[in-house]
Amino acid sequence: MTGVRPGPTIASIATELGLSVPTVSKVLNGRSDVAPATRDRVEAALEKHQYRRRRPATAPAGTGLIDLVFHRLGSGWSMEIIRGVEAAAAESRTSVILSELGGEHRPPARWLDTTIARPPLGVLLVAANLSEAQHQQLDRRGIPYVVIDTDGEPPADVASVGSDNWNGGLQATRHLLALGHRRIAMITGPWDMLCSRARVDGFRSAHEERGVAVDPALVREGNFYVEAGFDLGVELLSLPDRPTAVFAGSDMQALGLLRAAHQLGLRVPEDLSVVGYDDLPLASWVGPPLTTVRQPLAEMGAAATQILIDIARGRSPKVRRLNLSTELVVRDSTAALH
Asked: Which positions carry the signal peptide feature in this UniProt record (predicted)?
């Protein structure tokens, strides 16, 4: 009778490579005192044998850290996600640490080395994702991760939480069209982010419904931040045949756009209608209060945190892919075209 073939162990991999067990263990634990060539050999062997570190069946509540990784910090958008993550983590008596990627959507090697050496209970990636090699390295070490507002389609085995950006773009543009606007501009987010492209698709779909052509000259790529809203707003509002309405793509870009309109002597909403996106707390306090699309950012952060904690503690999450609904919030920055 043939017995079950045992899985790979650190010792068997070390023997195969002619290395010591501590050397292989150092690579697994993200230690820096291993020669790069040796590290590459060990990683290749771990992948070849599909080595996976066994995580304890039940990590005790109150242990471990969640590494919350943003592609960029510094706006009310990120603060809302942090609020949701922190609230859900606190309920599980788990602490949160923050990392920032300087606007990049893929973590650098040094982040991966630090994460492996730590290691956290799990990782939450916001508007970022891992390369396949990075994914495998975390997987081999039993470190789960969940993606929030992914920049692209995550691997099938990776949990993700987002919102219905296509519908948000559709509702924002339908609102402006229903008010009689036909020259509607859009300031998008970065084109390499899935949420940006989905909002643009919703913007175009709303035009198609009404049989209204989109003027390509009125669609400009921004970065979701206030400076882009101001700079692109000045460009758009200085056109000879300027738009009468702008879907600003984010509340922060809408703030910049409002400043541009004021500088050019245009009144909102009498001369220009403006719609934001996110419904950050400041949206109801600006003048005029901003019509926007509510994106449940805090709820997204809380849901992703709960999914991650479930996976890390050996529980099967209720869902692995979650897309929360968006909602148009009408305030005073939009009006019928005169």
From this structure: none
Amino acid at 56: P
Residue 274's Cα: distance from chain center in Å? 24
DSSP count for the chain of H helices, then E strands = 11, 12
Compute the C-alpha angle 59/62/66, nearest 5°.
Answer: 80
- Whether 227 shows a pLDDT value over 60: the answer reads yes
Q: Hey, what are 117's tokens?
A: 């050496």
**CA gap 98, 177 in Å, rounded:** 41
Residue 286 DSSP code: S
**b/e per residue, 225-246, with b = 16+ CB within 10 A?**
bbebbbbbbbebbeeeebbbbb
Residue 170 pLDDT greater than 90, yes or no: yes
Closest among 241, 298, 297, 244 to 266, alpha carbons compared: 244
Cα torsion for 137, 139, 145, 147, to the nearest 10°? 70
**For 2-11, 31-40, 91-100, 209-218, which range has the lowest pLDDT when averaged over its residues?**
2-11
Q: Compute CA distances 338 → 179, 209, 261, 270, whole Å.
A: 9, 22, 18, 8
| pLDDT over threshold 90, residue 102 | no
Q: Which amino acid is at 46?
A: L
How high is the pLDDT of residue 72? 85
Q: Is 309 exposed, middle or buried (0-12, 13-18, 19+ CB in 10 A)?
A: buried
Q: Is 159 exposed, middle or buried (0-12, 13-18, 19+ CB in 10 A)?
A: buried
Quick one: 2 exposed, middle or buried, by C-beta within 10 A (0-12, 13-18, 19+)?
Answer: exposed
Q: Are 122 and 66 in contact (CB under 8 A)?
A: yes
| Total Cβ atoms within 10 A of residue 3 | 5
User: Does residue 129 or residue 269 have the better pLDDT?
Assistant: 269
d(CA 289, CA 281): 11
For 197-214, letters b (16+ CB in 10 Å) and e give bbbbebbbebbeeeeeeb
